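Troubleshooting log. The previous structure file for this entry was overwritten by mistake, so regenerating from the original sequence record. Sequence copied from the archived sheet and checked twice against the printout by T.R.
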Amino acid sequence: MHPAFPFLSIFPALEELSPPPPRFPRLAASLPWQLRRRCVAAVCLLAPAVAAAGLRLHHPARVRSGGSLSPAWERGRGRGWLGSQRGGRSGKDTKTASRLQALLHCASGQEGSLGQWPSSRPRDAISSWQFSGAHLPPSRRGPGSISCSEENTFLAGTKLEMASPEQKGLVPFTRESLELMKQHIAKKHDEEQREDLKPNTDLEVGKELPFVYGHLPQGMVSEPLEDVDPYYKNKNTFMVLNKKRTIFRFNATWCTFSPFSSTRRTTIKILVHPFFQLFILISVLIDCIFMPMAELPNWGPALQNTLLGIYTFEILIKVIARGIWVEHFYFFGDPWNWLDFSVTLFEHITRYLPLNFILIFSITRNLRILKIIPLNQGLKSFAGILIHCLKKLTGVIILTLFFLSVFSLIGMGLFMGNLKHKCLRWPQENETATLHNRTGNPYYIRETENFYYLEGEIYALLCGNRTDAGQCPEGYVCVKAGTNPDYGFTNFDSFGWALLALFRLMMQDYPEALYHQILYASGKVYMIFFVVISFWFTFYIASLFLGTLAMSCEEEKQKAAEKAEKTEPQFQQTVKELEEGDKAAETKTTQMEMKKRSPTSMITSLNMLDDSTATIRHEEELKKSRKRCPLCWYRLAKTLLIWNCSPCWLKLKEFIHMIIMDPFTDLILTICIILNVCFLTLECYPMSEETNNVLSIGNLIFVGIFTAEMILKIIAMHPYGYFKVGWNIFDSLIVFHGLAEFYLANVHGMALLKIFRVLRIFKLGKYWPTFKILMVIMSNSLVALKGLVLLLFTFMFFSAVVGLKLFGRSYKECVCNIDKDCQLPHWHMHDFFHSFLNVLRILCGEWIETLWDCLKVAGQFGCIPFYMMVILIGNLLIIYLFLALVSSCSSYKAPTTEENDEAQNLQRAMARIKKGINYMFPQISCKKQHISKKTMDNINDVYVKENISDPTLSDLSNTQDFFKDKEKSSGTEKNTMTENESQSLIPSPSVSETVPIASGESDIENLDNKEIQSKSVDGSSKEKVKQSSSSECSTVDFAISEEEMVYEREKPKQLKNGYRRRSLPGQISGESKKGRIWQNIRKTCCKIVENGCFKCFIGLVTLLSTGALAFEDIYIDQRKTIKILLEYADMIFTYIFILEMLLKWMAYGFKAYFTDSWYKLDFMVVIVFCLSLIGKSREELKPLISIKFLRALRVLSQFERMKVVVRALIKTTLPALNVFLVCLMIWLAFSIMGVYLFAGTFYECIDPTNGERFPISEVMNKNQCESLVFNESMQWENAKFNFDNVGNGFLSLLQVATFNGWITIMNSAVDSTGVNKQPNFEDNIYMSYYFISFIVIGLFLPLSMLIGVIIANFNKLKIKGGSNIFITEKQKRQYHALRGLLHEDSQKAIRRPRNKFQRFIFDLVTSQVFNVFIMILICFQAMTIMIQSDEQSINMDIAVFWINLILVLLYTGECVLKLISFHCNYFTVGWNIFDFMVVIFSITGLFLPMMVGYYLVPPSVMELILLSRIIHILRPGKGPKVFHELLLPLMFSFPALLNISLLIFLVMFIYAIFGMYNFAYVKKEFGINDVANFETFGGSMLCLFQVTIFAGWDGMLNAIFNSKWSDCDPDKINPGTQVRGDCGNPFVGIIYFVSYILISWLIIVNMYIVVVMEFLNIASKKKAKTLSEGDFKKFFQVWKRFDPDRTQYIDSCKLSDFAASLDPPLFMAKPNKGQLVAMDLPMAAGDRIHCLDILLALTKRVIGTDVKMEKLISEMESGFVLANPFKIIYEPITTTLKRKQETVSATIIQRAYKNYRLRQNDKNTSDIHMIDDDKEVQATTENAYFDKAEKKSTIQSQI
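Regenerated output below.
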């Protein structure tokens, strides 16, 4: 018993206490010391109540040090920090304990500890407390004694512990646990306490319980346990573990049965049993097997009933076990249970209650397939990730729908009814009348033979009345008649069909057909509309989707990386600890150590120990499995597989090992593999017998070589060592295949074994480190993403089954609607296999044609929703999988030193060969060394003597020493360029000479510059060199005279010729007058070529010479004047460029000129000009004219923007060349495989009468086809795209990769029957797997690898260069200016007028209500266009007219009102100018048709003008904020996109000119027609635009393939020109299209990368704790509204509103008063706060506090004080936190004093007979007092 506090001796030994509410210590911290002393006294007075309340104090020092002061958790489990004992206490005792708790913390003034629960005996806790008074001398004080002088210290140190439960083990869940949980929840509800706990990710449902929780006793398996996750301690939940330690959670209340009911416990045991889940999974898989079957076996219904019973039983088990409610862990709290319940219910309905709509209910049964997802944890997790991605994509989806709707309305206004315009024969045979109304014919004319049809087309030719539209042939007129093309489904006659057409254009599915239809019917000028939609809009929307999903993918990647970083150190430490000794002992030791840690580190350790234990357990199992082998197999394997028989054998083994492991052996094997690949590529059809024999013999030789390699390696390494290497196993499989193919060659059906020869190609991977690295990355990525891959396959399977059930019967019954022979086409959904192929085709982007067929057989109700579901969800899965693979491949690093033995052997072999060559030619080598040494001496001598007067003589001496050292180290070096300079992208200028190239012209191509340069070793000299300019005429160059500059340019030549100069440049010019004249000439030339006007002139001439090429089309011979002008212009351009070249030669010299690649390009263009002029002079040289298209290349060297883009593309692409070769190797394997499978099988016999293939019943092979009587002019034809050789195979695979023409190729493969055999419909249907495997393995995976490596190079360059690598330095400055401009107010504030009337109007037009009203009008006008259609009634036209008139009047009124209120300021805002122009044009468009007629000005023009105001939705500050955020990436990346677009246009221009020269007269068929052709420049650009988006290039190449007499006429006369024939050149066409596809794809990929990276950059800046200049600008913009007088101060009462008005990241949502008070802001007189104090506090809140941050804040404060010195007048007198503490303390004191006086008055005035009543009143008052104090404490805790 302590003498100072005797009441402490009555504290009983109590059980464990729960964590204290944090409100009391926080409240106590705010109280003054006087009040705390009174609280101490109150504690002493309330000491008798301590025993009843169950209170216990803990030593503060022991709590801080991690000591434990309380009993074990499993014995106590008390709820409430000062709650009652387990025995039960009255409510009064509990309230007394609460009061004492509050008073104790008021006395302490400190917060409770957040450490772990103590675990020692309570007696120790009591005895450890030592209080003392002033009378106790220091010598008698205990370790924790406190004197009266240390009262404040004692009060500050006194605290009660708040800790999490001790996690020593698992505790059964009992009724007492449930009761205590309810009490604690009720108490927490009364206290309104909020916890910041979050669920532990390692303790989620479905995961295994971590090992740290100890061994799971058998009695606790499948039994209710108390939840070990602190988050669920008070959530009315309990936990159940199965045998595999899998975690399940259940609710303890609101259930059908009690948690302790035997029935419910039984169902829980069944539910959590692993066998139950496996049983359900097997049932679902069996159901999935029988779902696609059209006809079930006889026992099928019984199986379905059994499965239905199983599903019903599962639901009953789940309902009983979990309970019926909609919260977490209840049955209906899981969406997957909703799905399961709905499907089962509908299945019962369809089984027992047959209804008319039974088909819909029966289809819902297919949703059972999705039940696989919740049964697999990986599938479920990825499904959750994708759902999270969908939430992030909400804004992108809304913006996409908005743009699609707007463009659909524009399409309706432009093209409504145009696709019905057709060419009609007039007058007809039996009529003589004329047709007057050509476009507005109100009568419906059906499709008849009177329409004009092109050859091979099923739809009539479309036409238009514009000059650039399609024209009808003679005898036909253009009328609006018939139906729309494509079964009537392609049109813009209503909003729905227009939206479908725009969605088709956005998805780029068969867009070329829609282009041609619209351009035929409306005119080529509308190609602009399609360019905007198909390219820019599609590009922007795709970039948004890619950016959002990439951001989600990066977030997941960062989470995994952060978790790995946290877990790795502790993981390694735990692994070492557990591997040292016995597993059980180490685990126990680890648990004991973890008890002493803090809870935070403990939780982390739990997670890490779980992972480490699992890994160790797996490793131990592997070790055990390996150790089991020696018991029975190890000795046998050692005896049989390790051959150490005799010394002779060992000597032979060593000899063979020396040979087979020699580097030259690997080199020879590599050469053999390459030769074998060459032999494989020689396979073709037809092939001569000699070639076939050579290939067969070669195959036998290579099989023998590989067999010998395997045998020798087995001898050298033993079989045991040989088969331990993966590559050796692969080699052995190839050998066994070769031997099996040899012995089974004559067996029927074994010919397909040849296709496995392609595996030999991958033997190169053993010697190719890049291939190995990429394969490892890809395999690891696929293993990590196996859940996502399985989820994608599950969705495809589900979609195929749903399509089969929905449309399978319709395809069979209505097949005549889509085929005149009533035969099912290749693509349908009548059976599961075809349905699955159809789903695959939809996901590949080819869906519109199958959708038309579906609409014909099944209608719109089911087809469109089904297709939209497959397209949207399927593409989401594919894109996320693609981005995940790209993200993993972006970590690729080129192999450097970490190479395998085979690759190192190749390097050793090459090194030996080089060494041998040098040894064989020693004289040449010595001669080189002698020349090099002599040259170096000359250089050093000249440099020293010429610069003897230069002040940097020491630098030059260092340079001389450097060259001497360089000479010693490398005698064979011919130049003096250092290693760093040779690796630099731009050669560094030397001290004594300047580079003879203007600034900005020395780029990556200057790597070949071999000019003599000096180098200084001194660092300061290096800095001088770096700061020097490379421009000769620059004013910031070294102070060297012009004579010296000219001399410096001649110096390399003199050195090269061995001529030594020992005099200064001034002496040279004085010795010879000719030399001075020559120098003056060069000076003049230098000034001319460096002059800005000269450069602009050359650039203009370059553009003119390039643009002149566009006029040389097929009509040039008919335009004599233009032709003559172009001829003279070519001569002038040639002379100008020759003159420019001569001037640069004079100024720079030949050496300097030809070391710059851009000048080399200019020189090549000059040669092209000269050759073209020579070609015009002589007829035999006329083909030289066709190279004129190369003149456009000169544009690259004249414009810096294009040079930057080309430079960046080279830097990002060249490092990926190795990866491109890997992708090419994969394609080569598939091409060879295609040759083996389909060579010679694509031939067919065509009926010349109808162009269709003969049925196999009439013609079976080539001989029968050639023997037909009427087949004199027809041959046995082959498909133009085939696999007859490897080259054609590559071309066919390129079509499959671009999804152009691949359907035709795939159909031909499916119909193939054999070589020289007539194809039969789907005779070889399973050949589809070849194309499916290529799409996955040959396209999807290599594409992700290649793009990933390009992104990696892009990021590297961005880190080095900063900002964007595709923009110039000037654009970078504009980029930063644009960022700053976006953060400023785009609209200047307009002052409010003084006039009352104007002020009223001003308030009206600037009000939010008025803006909302205008937006409603805009949307209403858009809806009026949506409801219109092509053939609407006259009343509808009148109603639309009046609606438009009213809208025009309202918009005019708005304009007038704003003009009245704003005056001239109205036109200072761009949006107002736009609205004014809309009003003017709307009025004009409304009344102009009445004057000139509706034919010239259709009413739709005015509607589109009004519709243009819908762009206000995208206006910042007016429309949705998410739209503005989504537009930012496009705005920030616009400069780079503009530069890249210029390069794309230049490439298109060059290829268009080339196409005009080579394909202008090609026969018009397939993809070449009157709209898309190469006759004119416009047509060529249209064709190339299609190729750019991979649309229809196969048709154009098919037309160019017409090179035979049977396909074209080489002697055809083309009117107006001397060119004859309409044949194409297949070889040139292939090179033309393939090269353009690769170049354009590369450029477009970089465009996507730019936007996506900008998107990720913006997102990362938002997430990162950083503040930009724009954030500070926004802060002060908001400050202006709260401080209009600019006092820099605001009242503290406005602080909450101000913080809530800020933009993120400074934004603080309400309620925020507590957070603002906690910031402890300084307050001046009048309770005012300075703006800088607020800004600094908010900045600290966002960024945090560290050294850099403190420095930044100090700089901000000092700068602000210097700019605003009057701030020092107001000295802070208090802070927000102190002021709040004073207020709260005063309130508590006042209330306490008031209650005290009240009790005193009641005591004095009470009657003696009312003593008991007075006691009750006193108790009530006292309770009220403490209740108020507790409420106030709650408020303080929230603060």
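The beta strands are 237-241, 247-251, 421-425, 476-480, 1243-1244, 1277-1278, 1689-1691, 1722-1723, 1728-1730, 1774-1775. Archived copy saved in two places this time.
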